[in-house]
Amino acid sequence: MRKGVIAGLGVVLAGAAVSGCVVVDASNAGNNGRPVALESETIRYETAPCFGTCPVYAVTIAPNGKGTFEGKRFTAVTGIKPFQATPAAYHSFAAKLAPYRPSQPEALLQPGQPGCENAPTDMPSVDIVWSEASGSRQHLNVYYGCGSQEMRAGLRSAPEALPIAAFIGDPRRPR
């Protein structure tokens, strides 16, 4: 009898451990069917060059606020610079990006594709990857000559939630 109780307890604990990694929101009502951020996910936000002096950098951040900035071109800091934000800053950054997070694994808004048939040239773009500990991910790549002004402004302003302004440099420079 005692072995049966112990074995049953082991199954219950194993089930609890596995289910602790998964967030299930059956309704997903407040998120319009978009994926919900998990506490173990990281976000990588990377800008691409334009025809000019747009800052080119990548920033990766985890929910605990631990992050890495990598300045590539036209930034105040060149190279890799670790930083520590607050968890609240991470959640603010994630919330600013959430409306544009794709529900499928990949979404590209590039010239010549639906929704971007007649785009201006020489604009920068942004590449965002949401990566979960499970290995699943969503990827968004947006050319700033495409999409709505609201979306472009939302994506451009999201990094303002993070303590990286001094790494990027002069905010008056075009992004």
State the major sheet. Answer: 7 strands, mixed
C-alpha Rg (nearest Å): 20 Å
How many distinct helices?
4
Structural class by helix and strand composition: alpha+beta
Uncertain runs: 1-31
Q: How far from one another are the termini?
A: 68 Å
Shape: globular
Helix content: 10-25%
Can you give the mean pLDDT?
82
Question: How would you spell out the order of helices and strands?
Answer: HEEEEHEEEHH
Q: How many beta strands in the DSSP annotation?
A: 7
- Work out the strand percent: 25-35%
Sheet with most strands: strand arrangement: 4-3-2-1-6-7-5
Q: How is this structure best summarized?
A:
The chain is an alpha+beta fold and 175 residues long. The protein has four helices and seven strands, in the order αββββαβββαα. The chain has helices at residues 2-19, 87-97, 149-157, 165-168, and strands at 42-47, 56-61, 66-73, 79-84, 106-109, 125-131, 137-143.
What would your notes on this structure say?
It is a single chain. The chain is α+β, with helices and mostly antiparallel strands and 175 residues long. Strands 4-3-2-1-6-7-5 form a seven-stranded mixed beta sheet, covered by helices on one side. The termini are far apart.
Keywords:
175 residues; alpha+beta
SSE blueprint:
Layout: H1 2-19, E1 42-47, E2 56-61, E3 66-73, E4 79-84, H2 87-97, E5 106-109, E6 125-131, E7 137-143, H3 149-157, H4 165-168
Parallel strand pairs: 5-7
Antiparallel strand pairs: 1-2, 1-6, 2-3, 3-4, 6-7
